[in-house]
Amino acid sequence: MSDEKKVVELVVSNPEVKQQKSEIIIVAPHCDDEIIGCYEILMNKEISPIIIYTEDTPNERRQESLKLKTFLSNVKIQLFARHIPEAFLNQDSIFYFPDPIHEFHPDHRKVGYRGEELYRRGLDVRFYSVQMNVSWIHEVKNWKDKKRLLDKVYPSQKGLWSSDLKYVLFEARYKWEK
Questions:
Q1: pLDDT below 50 — which residues of the chain?
Q2: Buried b (16+ CB within 10 A) or exposed e, 32-48
Q3: According to the model, what pLDDT value does residue 114 have?
Q4: Cα–Cα dist 12/23, whole Å
Q5: pLDDT at 21 (0 to 100)
Q6: Termini Cα distance of the chain
Q7: Strands across the sheet with 50-53, in order?
Q8: Which residues, in sequence order, are CB contacts of 7 under 8 Å at separation 6+?
Q9: For residue 134, what are the contacts with CB-CB under 8 A and spacing of at least 6?
Q10: 128 phi and psi, to 5 degrees?
Q11: Rounded CA separation 94/88 (Å)
Q12: Would you say 132 and 162 are in contact if contact means Cβ atoms under 8 Å apart?
């Protein structure tokens, strides 16, 4: 994606995302990225998001991720797939992908570029960051609840949230101009 695209919509609060379209699909390279980058969306009880994990994740974290539905009953589907199934690729879906420009992790960038391809095909794609090294971050209103959820679902990662609270305190999502 060229840098000349400008951000036209900052998606900074939970109520802005309604079940206006048929599906809200969060594409997460790794188990835990869905909570780190899209916690406020996951907490919106008015939607039933689908989460697709696309990259290899240690088996322990895969098993941990399956506990997410225990804590968030509105999560519709959790799917482990290398590619997004064609059935989900339609104009009635809103996709959330990692930012292909600002993310440092190669898996996040690779998955973000897939999101950019779908954006170029005309699908409704929005981007999120787990790095929080962008200028369009906002504070999570209930960050302590976010940390508790991360601790409950991903106990193997618990040290990460304690040593680097950026994963808990902030979120960043945006949509490029068409």
A1: 1-19
A2: bbbbbbbbbbbbbeebe
A3: 95
A4: 19
A5: 55
A6: 12
A7: 7-10, 173-176, 124-128, 93-98, 23-28, 50-53, 77-80
A8: 136, 174, 175, 176, 177
A9: 99, 102, 172
A10: -130, 165
A11: 10
A12: no
H or E stretch covering 28: strand 23-28
| 106, 112 Cβ separation under 8 angstroms | no
- pLDDT at residue number 59: 84
What pLDDT is attached to residue 122?
93
Torsion of CA 167, 39, 59, 30, to 10 degrees: -70
Residue 12 token pair: 């900074």
Which tokens belong to 53? 């994990």
Helices (H), the chain: 33-42, 59-65, 68-71, 106-120, 143-153, 158-163, 166-169
With tokens 């000349």, the residue in question is 4
Structural domains in the chain plus CATH codes:
7-176 (3.40.50.10320)
